[in-house]
Each structure stands twice: as C-alpha cells, then as structure tokens.
Amino acid sequence: MAETTAFRVMLRMQIFPGMEQEFEKVWYAGSDVIGRQAGNLGQWLMRGEDEEEGVYYIMSDWVDERAFRAFEGTDEHIEHRTQLHPYRSKGSMATMNIVYALNSPAVTS
C-alpha cells in the first residue's frame, strides 16, 4: 500500500445526442494542452456505460492542487474548454486528493 499526495480532477459531461464522436475527436486533438503541463501526471477520457447515453468522464492527475489551479487559469485551458463547450448539455467537476494508491498484481509497468 503506497501513500500518495496526488490531486485528481474528474469532470462529468453530458454530450448532446449524435455529437459524441465529434466531441471525442475535439477532446483528443486538444489533449496535449494538459499533457504539456509540468504538474500533470496523466489524463483519461472515459465513456459511461451504465447510465444515460452520452455521459463522459475526463480525469486528470496532478502533482498537487496548486499545479492544477495554476493551469486552470491559463489561456490554453480556457481555449480548450471553449472548444468542448458546444458539445455538452451539462457538466460537473469533482476534485480530490488521492490518499492511497493500490495497484493490482495484474497491473504491469
């Protein structure tokens, strides 16, 4: 069991019907904006399967909250968010600190 202090951000977005594939393309095309940030540890785009159609989750991990908040106010972030906005009907954000990270033996490096 490894203790960690990473900061995680999870966005939940409801995408307008029929716009899912275009949303995925636009998200992917702009994903390097986050990946270039020194404090970013990784990011994921996930599609919900057990709820209403068109639900996506965007998760990103950061070295700490300060690094995320610094990125959140940049022109790059605002531009990327603006490009995604036309695809979503609603959204929410949750932030959290990872207390423990437990890796399964099936996970390889």
Automatic annotation (TrEMBL):
Name of the protein described by the UniProt record: Antibiotic biosynthesis monooxygenase
Domain of life: Bacteria
Keyword Oxidoreductase in record: yes
Keywords: Monooxygenase, Oxidoreductase
ABM domain location: 7-96
Molecular function terms, GO-annotated: monooxygenase activity
Record flagged with keyword Oxidoreductase: yes
SUPFAM superfamilies in the cross-refs: Dimeric alpha+beta barrel
InterPro entries with a match to the protein in the record: ABM_dom (IPR007138), Dimeric_a/b-barrel (IPR011008)
